Amino acid sequence: MIQFLLNQELRSEHALDPNLTVLEYLREHLGKPGTKEGCASGDCGACTVVVGELATGADGQEHLRYRSLNSCLTFVSSLHGKQLISVEGLKHQGKLHSVQQAMVDCHGSQCGFCTPGFVMSLFALQKNSDAPDLHQAQEALAGNLCRCTGYRPILAAAEQACCQAQPDQFDTAQAQTIARLKAIAPTETGELNSGDKRCLVPLTVADLADLYGSHPEARLLAGGTDLALEVTQLHKTLPVMIYVGNVAEMKRVDTFEDRLEIGAATALTDCYEALSREYPDFGELLHRFASLQIRNQGTLGGNIGNASPIGDSPPLLIALGAQIVLRRGQATRTLALEDYFIDYRITARQDSEFIEKIIVPRANLAWAFRAYKVSKRLDDDISAVCAAFNLRIDNGVVAEARIAFGGMAAIPKRALACETALLGKPFSMATIERACQALAEDFTPLSDFRASKEYRLLGAQNLLRKYFIELQTPHIETRVTAYV
């Protein structure tokens, strides 16, 4: 059985189909049609809901943390022990919530189909920001698409809703909600079981390892932003899933003198502070890693584990010399991330083995790290090419080099010929040009709807030139740039 709060109503579920998304659950099982299905792939934001969880603040006090999610990519099992807030829950005692009223006052709705998703993103923004600036509002709304308004009135609604916010029913009930979430906090492995399909929800790494050992055929579910597409887009059935999002040990970011250790189930939003503090370019790239809804849900381990050749984090992590800790049962092994990827969607992971954590070296001022993303649009888009450069230059000579690309091969991959062309050579434009030619030895990219093979190779070469120019003129800040 799983338990969660729907708005303020306690829900207990056991026999639901684990392949059921929150979007379908709201609309088809509960008759709450306010949440809309636009794309069923996490692109449009019409299905946005907000999930509240218990969190501990810097002051050591417990509070509620609200985050926007795409309900079309969220399986119901991930709600275990949390609070789900749908658009129907905002209106209170016959009065519109302040974010809804702001959309009315600022004429932020026309056809209205996208409006509930915008309202829920604004609600999350209001809860997480006292007085957000334009950039914060744009980031919060970047995952919501509107074909009618041109966004200006919606941004005006964001300003009104957040800068003139008044306490609402969620603030009034906060202490009660915290108490209710504590009361339903999971104490043992939960399960959804429809007879022929099941999803298990362990609470510890040890339990996860045992369950995965007993069910090696199971699909591991973390954020689900990739796995759920198999259900919503490819119409597959997933007979057995194990949800890792309630394993607290895998949702931590620990800082040591020489490294960061990031639990594989840590949401990308939670990775941001640590990674951006060490590597500003990593932080900039995470701002462009899909939408806020996806970053709130997707995990660093999942982005690695699905072995996509166009995943944004692996090239950066490879260039930084990151490692992963793989676990099976009680046994663990540590593997350089670059050795994890073998071929297209094929990895070194063994049966019943899972990524427990990612180890990232801390920043070293002797190295110059930069990252760049080339995509058709600035926000919420998949890379055509993702590049990461990490060089150590001593007295004008390249002493060490780690260069990695995504989108250039069947796997995220180091550019070894390019590195060889740089090593031991003066860090000059002549050396860079030779290294650019070596990139043609490293990669034979494919053409697809994102970019031609010629565009990808030339783009990769130009990014290396860009890296050189930026290091020569550090006042130029044009990193993580999109090329249209």
Automatic annotation (TrEMBL):
Q: Which UniProt keywords apply?
A: FAD, Flavoprotein, Iron, Metal-binding, Oxidoreductase
E.C. no: 1.17.1.4
> Domain named 2Fe-2S ferredoxin-type: which ranges?
1-90
Against SMART domains, the record matches this protein to:
CO_deh_flav_C
Q: Which GO terms describe its molecular function?
A: 2 iron, 2 sulfur cluster binding; FAD binding; iron ion binding; xanthine dehydrogenase activity
Coiled coil region boundaries: none
Give residue ranges for domain FAD-binding PCMH-type. Answer: 192-365
Q: Which PANTHER family match?
A: XANTHINE DEHYDROGENASE
Looking up NCBIfam families in the UniProt record yields: xanthine_xdhA (TIGR02963)
Name under which the protein is recorded: Xanthine dehydrogenase small subunit
